[in-house]
What does this fold into?
Amino acid sequence: MTAMLTRLTLAAALLGLGATPARADAAESHYRLALVHKQAGRHDQALRELDEALRLRPSFADAHYTRGTVLRRMNRLEDAATAFREATRLAPENASAHGMLGATLIRLRQYEAALVPLRRATELAPDEAQYWSNLGLAYRRLRRNDEAIRTYEQALATHPDDAGLLNNLAVALRRARRNEEAIVMLAAALERSPDSGEMHRNLAVTLRASERWEEAIPHFQRAVELGEDAPGVFFDLAICYEQTGQLEPAIATYERYLRALGDRDAAATQRGRDRIQRLRDRQ
It folds into this structure.
């Protein structure tokens, strides 16, 4: 009797949403097939199944959410944001939908708009560090650095060992010219994630900003080993060599800077050549 009442209640709910039980079952089948396609990286097929599921059941919140994740993987960010918004409307207590909407808006550089869903995500799931990290990032992009620092500090109160949060707080502290505090945070982050090229680079940059040239060098070197090979890394490392009187390594690193830069910036290229010539004149 109880099972029959449950089926009748579900049927009544589906009818209230404009879907017959048969259509709802069909929508679920298309949704599950979409998940298989998504897992296999067949994004176009996944979208077709999701669209069919939503045609049969327009109020299918999970299908809207999954559609957003597929569109995001396809870099169709505006469409993904629309799908996540619909998911949050239909399932307002779904922290993942709010979090993904906020993250997608950040990628769209709509930082002010990202704040609302990200704040809601942290309210619904305060133990999810990524929501706090993205909220702090949105504040940083808006140049609201004090709010970014408060956000990261609040998150670290409950996630003290999260290397990503420690790193992000350090970046915000450096922007506030609180370099010594940033160095402490980055050292703690690297204790937890010693093979992060980004964190080695951030520590090196912060040490360089504090004119701690010799201490910065091994962190720049490790960052390069770990794949951080943007031209700016080589330029900063060369400056550290120069400041510590290591002229040959400085010249060699400025040359690596020029190779990494290519022909993208004529002024930067000339700056590198001028530095090399000046160092050669000193030899």
Remarks:
- The longest helix spans residues 21-39.
- Residues 1-19 have pLDDT under 50 and may be disordered.
- The radius of gyration is 25 Å.
